């Protein structure tokens, strides 16, 4: 079969203008090994964005592969609705163990978007059942990203993705990222009608790796406590080591009321998500059946056993390989490697926290598709990256070797140089 032909004939790719797609030769990834992807012609590429921010320990990790095969020999799927199974139970226990203090309850789903939706519904229903039905609103940050389903888009703030859908969305209050005084004003005025503040801690990923000032998260937590508003932290991108600690909120000693996890939870192997809740929230849902305090939510593949087995193996690898301990010097090295690039005339700013890196280019006209050009230049040099507009993202698997990290940054620098040189002069930023 001519795969490229069949792709153009039948596929519709996410976040992709298909007209441009159909004009280009698709890169078809057939295999992967460690931190490299291998295409249908046998060419190898560094996986510079962890296969969309989710791969943690590399591809085909023997420990995780074996765990999935082992689970496959028992069963591929059984429902969590009215039944339970060992991998889901064991993973829930492990997640409660490693999560910030107080998060003892694990509700599974399948994607970051659903993890966020579920947190919103939990917060909303919690207040309703506490006799505070007027607490219906959410405070979200400007440029926030919590997924692509209608509820998660409602608390999102990236106009490029979201503005068209405005008529379908519920209304939210918007706070300026990093502005404590602004958050304080919003809460002073609206806390009586607010169910929760939802935010990505430390780094707003899809916003273009927007890094918050130190202490911001801590202060938002204190404000939420003062106004008795719940705090939902979306660690779908930042979780599982991406910022240098297992969870980003640890760095400010903060524990949320609800925590959203996905992307890296299975080491980047299979779709799985979890919304973690405190006992306080959990208990707010307890009652006699006819009181209807049940959380009426659940997806067919929720808590899939293969995915839970992969997640358990990934957590075991964190311990066995000392993933976080070995990451610290690589985070240092990445900073050193990026230094010369910060001085490049086409680079406006480099933002970074741990392994989450955004290289913001000067403002180029949309039709130049500068981010995409950089991607193509990087591809021809042996690295896969995917930018967010004109922000070139680097987020390799935590397991990447120091030489490969060097190679990734070098290719990225060359790609930025080649793409921006070939283009006309940028507009002023
Ligand atoms: C990717 C992402 C999501 C959405 O996750 P999906 O699995 O793509 O639905 C939600 N929140 C954040 C912070 C993300 O980065």
Characterization of this structure:
By secondary structure, the chain is of the alpha/beta class. 38% of the residues lie in helices and 17% in strands. It folds into two domains: 3-57 and 322-428, Aspartate Aminotransferase, domain 1 (Alpha-Beta Complex); 63-320, Type I PLP-dependent aspartate aminotransferase-like (Major domain) (Aspartate Aminotransferase, domain 2). Residues 111-113, 116, 145-147, 200, 205-206, 234, 236-237, 262-263 line the site of pyridoxal-5'-phosphate (PLP).
Question: Which descriptors would you attach to this protein?
Answer:
429 residues, alpha/beta, Aspartate Aminotransferase, domain 1, Aspartate Aminotransferase, domain 2, 2 domains, 4-stranded mixed sheet, 16 strands, globular
Summarize the structure.
The protein is α/β, with parallel strands linked by helices.
Helical content, roughly?
A: 25-40%
Class based on secondary structure composition and strand pairing = alpha/beta
Shape: globular
Bound molecules: pyridoxal-5'-phosphate
Biggest β-sheet description: 7 strands, mixed
The unreliable regions are none
- CATH top level of the largest domain? Alpha Beta
Order of strands across the biggest sheet?
A: 4-12-11-10-7-5-6
CATH superfamily of the largest domain, called what? Type I PLP-dependent aspartate aminotransferase-like (Major domain)
Which architecture of the largest domain does the CATH hierarchy give at level 2? 3-Layer(aba) Sandwich
Q: What separation lies between the terminal Cα atoms?
A: 46 Å
